Structure of NADH:ubiquinone reductase (non-electrogenic):
Amino acid sequence: KRANPAPLLALVSRPPPHRRPAPTQIDAHDAAPMSTGGASLVRRALEAVRRTPRWQKRLVVLTVGAGTLSYACQDNRVLQISDGTGGKKKVVILGTGWAGASFLRNIDTSLYDVHVVSPRNYFMFTPLLPSVTCGTVEARSIVEPIRNIVRKRGGAFRFWEAECYKIDPTSKKVHCKSGDGTNADANGEFVVDYDYLIVTVGAKPNTFNTPGVAENCHFLKEVEDAQKIRKSVMKCFERAALPNLTDEERKKNVHFVVIGGGPTGVEFAAELHDFVNEDLAKLYPDVKKYVNISVIEAGEHILTMFDKRITHFAEDKFKRTGIDLKTNFKVVKVSDKTITMSNPTTGEIAVPYGLAVWSTGIGTRPIIMDFMKQVGQGNRRVLATDEWLRVLGCDNVYALGDCATISQRKVMEDVDSIFRVADKDNSGTLSVKNIKNVLGDIYQRYPQVELYLKTNQMKGFHDLLKDKETEELNIEEFKKALAQVDSQVKMLPATAQVAAQEGAYLADCFNRMNTCEENPEGPLRIRGAGRHRFKPFRYRHLGQFAPLGGEQTAAQLPGDWVHVGHSTQWLWYSVYASKQFSWRTRMLVVTDWGRRFFFGRDSSSL
Ligand code: FAD
């Protein structure tokens, strides 16, 4: 279509004077008996043009020209967005959580044709989800619609509200299904092809196949979960307040059980405790004495990922405030009326409950399980990537956030190759100078080496050598020196912090793809030639919080800084306000906190 405008313009524009045909010639043509319909049409048009005043001709030229141009531009835009043409590679992102949204915020859309598929058309600030369960913060205050982000970025990417149910890395396609089934087949299915695929689908709650959990427990993963819990808490109170109930029945209705003593379970228990004591106790004075909140933990302690001082403070605080902490209890079955748990000393016991929240960790989504089988990772629990977030066993697919884990390369797997790379003169031994030359690359490629030195209060690589006077190291001595460093390989935690940093890192790599192709900035390739294009992903831990209720929060910041109390609660408020996705959600969250402070939490069972 874009090839046609030239003849069209030629038809209405005036021909150059020296090529203008003489009127007699045209008349002669007119007289020719064998002229076709098309030709006579052209002749009539030319005649009409000749008779038309000059200003009118200019107007027509201008209108048709501008129309054609705008059509061409519009056509171009559509093609660029939908087909990834115009030299842009097509990047498809699955998921709009912490990892996906962070990638989306940072990717340069002038370089890539970006498409997003997610069943959730919003980003959710998960750390405030427990606050939604009790109405401290409203659900809509912690979400940012993806369409707002599309608008803010000038419509530079496409979003489809649908679930991806199959990744096909061989044909580089993802199969998606929208819940609405609005296409011709009414099954809502469509296929999207990609040049690069960014998998950020997160994880699902893990029930460990415990019978009855899926049917009878609440989870705390999505906004809808938090809203359901809020409604159920109020239903429990209303049921316990009904007449003609025995004390046992009232107790059962307001027995709230949290299974799992990790940060989410603990925070929910603390929120609920505050809600009951600060608001519901005044509204349900007759029910108050029956309320019981239990936290059941299979391990010996709660909050084990925190410093021991925080764990002990939290356990003492819970006991003081009347939260029933049951450690060393494993839930084995949940029915609609009772939770059965076992303990080495008590054996199995069944307790009646009104509401149970299951928060024991995360499991792999079915789409990831299927994908893992396809790429030869079927025997693993989590999708593995390399240190550049590329999925192992397939090309051009990246995975980040809770759905994946970085499989850090071990030093001892590569030790022979490291030796060979360092031994530049092929002498079969390494001098201190040889090692120094590659030390920066080794630290970058294998962060466990630096971590090992730090953990063991060693100043440098030299401290790893038993015999510090050694001038030259042979391969065996080199292996011996490095033998223990892999003990420091750590899996990154499944947190928003990790997911967001991974998203930003990967977008930055994509934005500098061409530059780094020409000037690689990564460490030396130990098993190949040259350098890696990019530096590997490095996680920077910025600290963690555990709100414990009663306006007290535990904080553990880098540098072994641990603090619990009211002052850290204010730190928590300011950090979480500043971390909101936009000014809109920041204002909403802060006003929710203010509303709760002045008027208390809302107790309607909406
Ligand atoms: P998610 O944020 O879960 O996002 C996954 C996205 O993928 C979603 O948009 C989902 O709709 C989409 N999706 C799912 N299936 C598909 C599919 N088949 N196709 C396409 N899209 C799909 N971390 C912290 O660091 N600090 C905290 O204080 C903290 N508090 C938390 C409190 C709660 C209640 C919870 C549940 C988690 C908390 N976390 C916290 C953990 C943190 O939320 C997760 O680690 C983080 O959300 C992981 O990000 P993600 O992008 O991998 O996954």
Observations:
- The pocket of flavin-adenine dinucleotide is lined by residues 94-100, 117-120, 126-127, 129-130, 163-164, 200-202, 220-221, 264, 365, 367, 401-403, 494-497, 499 (CB under 6 Å).
